[in-house]
Amino acid sequence: MAQEDVFKKIVSHCKEYGFVFPSSEVYDGLAAVYDYGQNGVELKNNIKEYWWKSMVLMHDNIVGIDSAIFMHPTIWKASGHVDAFNDPLIDNRDSKKRYRADVLIEDQMAKYDEKIEKEVAKARKRFGESFDEAQYLSTSPRVKEIADKRDALHERFQKAMNDMNLEELRQIILDEEIVCPISGTKNWTEVRQFNLMFATEFGSTAEGASKVYLRPETAQGIFVNYLNVQKTGRMKLPFGIAQIGKAFRNEIVARQFIFRMREFEQMEMQFFVQPGTELEWFPKWKETRMRWHQALGFGAENYRFHDHDKLAHYANAATDIEFRMPFGFKEVEGIHSRTNFDLSQHEKFSGRSIKYFDPQTNESYTPYVIETSIGVDRMFLSVMCHSYTEEQLENGETRVVLKLPAALAPVKLAVLPLVKKDGLPEKAQEIINDLKFHFNCKYDEKDTVGKRYRRQDAIGTPYCVTVDYDTLKDDSVTIRFRDTMEQERVKISDLRSIIEDKVSIASLLKKN
Ligand code: ATP
């Protein structure tokens, strides 16, 4: 199946099974805004819990906060967002579609890489067993020609972005003959800058109202609370502050489902360190975060680091953790060495000292910061994309199963009475009443047991138990395992010990 079709299926699966709905759907939706349904919210909460615990419980020098979405407007002046949180946009006059100029060019660079991959695949077929990829890549004139074009484009693009040279970005699009994917034409407008922050009015009277922004990142709430937390928590460097919360960006191109939303959620951690040690901490956090991702068991080959060529105005090192989505490797998390830029700016704009007094050196200084920033929704999407599986069964049927890591699954155990009578529903309820204190259990009595299994497969429930007539005699049930579909007879009193450990967030944390 084409990857595009797989993605479409995932999107409709998310809706059909109560994971993600388009926002305001009865009014035909609101672009790039989504609601999480009854199963989606559980999965999302589990992702957040996994992240929160990995930061705040697993590190004795990291604490959490929850800052307000509204903040003093000067914060966004100080952070540079009012002046520089822009994307270069370009319109196609024929389709009337709007694009990010930088994304059009990045996609073009990816096309050169795809061409090289195709050449390699062709050569592998031609040479068979004796094929040496490294040698082919370094000697093939055709590969060299494509790679030279890509590198020249890369260099030109990087310079244009660093200088924010909008005319040059447009010229690159024209020179590369990039066409609009909808109209297929090269009828492009000028490139313009577009600020991504949402603004609103604050205060009740017209005269007293002032302009405030919906925060475009959660990080600034951490920076402006740095001193509060450091002092009240008697924190010593190095230490971190973690936060999970909503962020808002008026994205130019908002397609691809929950990958790029206008309202989304971030999990950010700012790690404050002694100046000069930040580039020692940077690789440590890269490694720690990659371990967190890989503990989910999706396979190391599906992740990669992408180091940034163009550093943001505040950073001295930056990388993305990318995950293989059906539409290519895409950023899920950013790790940035943000220097002391933000704290210094807030000192400057507020006129207050935001320094750390180091008892060891008897000096005061502004700490440097390593930031890890991950989107909850993008993480959700990567989990969904990796878990969605269509299996061909021996009897010719197709089974759709979400192979979610058990610790993230919305429902851990479904309890199914074989029939709706003779005391079986009551017995099933009894099991739930006992186990619901420990993990999320659901009761289902509608349709055949086979259909009920399929429903649970589709939402990723790792365990189902069936209550039958023997259960009433010997207190045993049939447990069925989602991935293997194997069934076993077990005692009701053993259920908790069979399931609890495997579905706990602790089981993931231990793999970190
Ligand atoms: P992109 O280049 O894709 O626009 P970014 O580099 O601007 O992303 P950051 O500012 O580093 O993103 O934000 C950190 C994380 O927040 C990203 O890695 C991503 O997971 C998430 N994120 C950012 N923008 C969005 C969005 N519009 N919708 C959903 N998640 C987002």
Description:
The protein has 512 residues and is an alpha+beta fold. The chain folds into three domains: 3-68 and 215-385, 2-Layer Sandwich (BirA Bifunctional Protein, domain 2); 87-193, 2-Layer Sandwich (Herpes Virus-1); 399-509, Rossmann fold (3-Layer(aba) Sandwich). Helix content is 40%, strand content 25%. The protein has a seven-stranded mixed β-sheet with strand order 3-9-10-16-13-12-11. A five-stranded mixed β-sheet has the order 20-19-21-22-23, with helices on both faces. It is globular and about 75 Å long. The mean pLDDT is 94.
Measured as a percent range, the helix fraction is: 25-40%
Give the C-level CATH assignment of the largest domain. Answer: Alpha Beta
Form type? globular
What is the CA-based Rg, rounded? 26 Å
Give the beta-strand count.
23
Strand order of the main beta sheet, please? 3-9-10-16-13-12-11
Q: In CATH, what is the homologous superfamily of the largest domain?
A: Bira Bifunctional Protein, Domain 2
Summed over residues and divided by their number, the pLDDT gives a mean of 94
Strand content: 15-25%
Break the fold down into its secondary structure elements and pairings.
Blueprint: H1 3-16, E1 20-22, E2 34-36, H2 38-57, E3 62-64, H3 74-78, H4 81-84, E4 86-91, E5 98-100, H5 101-127, H6 133-139, H7 141-162, H8 166-175, E6 192-195, E7 198-202, E8 210-214, H9 219-223, H10 226-232, E9 239-248, E10 263-273, H11 278-294, E11 303-307, E12 317-325, E13 328-339, H12 341-350, E14 356-358, E15 363-365, E16 368-375, H13 376-387, E17 388-392, E18 398-402, E19 413-417, H14 424-435, E20 441-443, H15 449-459, E21 463-467, H16 469-474, E22 476-481, E23 487-491, H17 495-503, H18 505-509
Bound molecules: adenosine-5'-triphosphate.
